[in-house]
Amino acid sequence: MAILYAVVARGTVVLAEFSAVTGNTGAVARRILEKLPENADSRICFSQDRYIFHILRSDGLSFLCMANDTFGRRIPFSYLEDIHMRFMKNYGRVAHYAPAYAMNDEFSRVLHQQMEFFSSNPSADTLNRVRGEVGEIRTIMVENIEKILERGDRIELLVDKTATMQDGAFHFKKQSKRLRRALWMKNAKLLYLSGIQDKELVVPSDNHFLPTLNWTI
Could you tell me if 71 and 65 are in contact, meaning their C-beta atoms sit under 8 angstroms apart? Predict the structure, then answer.
């Protein structure tokens, strides 16, 4: 995925978050939120290594996501706008006094679901165009993360995408099993309907969950 991490926070109080990678991304995000001035602009970007942290501040809350630096700014901010809309619709003013991670069980799934959509669905790129926000987003400057840190302070971002790749491999394997099962059923029906006698139906399976059948009709 191009968008790898997202968090919704009230100041430094995290209300919900999701990460598609392992590492210290969440810790870095909280450091950024901690260092932001109260009167910061509603849309801010900070770069660190090969990643950009996009921040949308609205309704007293901060909506932050981290994406690959090659992904641009328009789609990540479309993602944040979508998350902001969904979050406020579900929780509204409750978010202004809710304790840490109060919405995490429910809303982390939304963060993940929309993260996948905006990272891979071509139609996601049309949202900001429809809203007429392209020009505004182009004016957002991407500052280096060092700008908001105290002198001598430094954040080292550690990102391990192994978890994301393993998750993708799991889904591919699951889909392969479903395909083999569908082909097995199709072949079984064809054998039955064609009246083939004493034919051995064999389906390759690395997990041995499909048996070898001898059909006699």
Answer: no
> What's the distance, CA 33 to chain centroid?
20
Per-residue pLDDT, 171: 43
User: Could you tell me which residues come within 8 angstroms of residue 32 by beta carbon, excluding any fewer than 6 positions away?
Assistant: 46, 53, 55, 64, 145, 148
Contact present, 4 and 164 (Cβ < 8 Å)? yes
pLDDT > 70: what percent of the chain? Answer: 55
pTM above 0.85, yes or no: no
Place of tokens 């996501």: 65
Cα–Cα distance, 47 to 148 (Å, whole number): 11
Which of 64, 68, 74, 71 lies closest to 16 in space, CA to CA?
A: 64
Of the candidates 125, 118, 145, 124, the residue with the CA atom closest to the CA atom of residue 25: 145
For the chain, where do the domains classified as CATH 3.30.450.50 start and end?
3-160
CATH of the structural domain 3-160, one choice from 3.40.640.10, 3.30.450.50, 3.40.630.40, 3.30.565.10: 3.30.450.50
How many whole angstroms separate alpha carbon 41 and alpha carbon 38?
Answer: 9
Residue 146: per-residue pLDDT? 58
In angstroms, how far is CA 153 from the centroid of its own chain?
A: 29
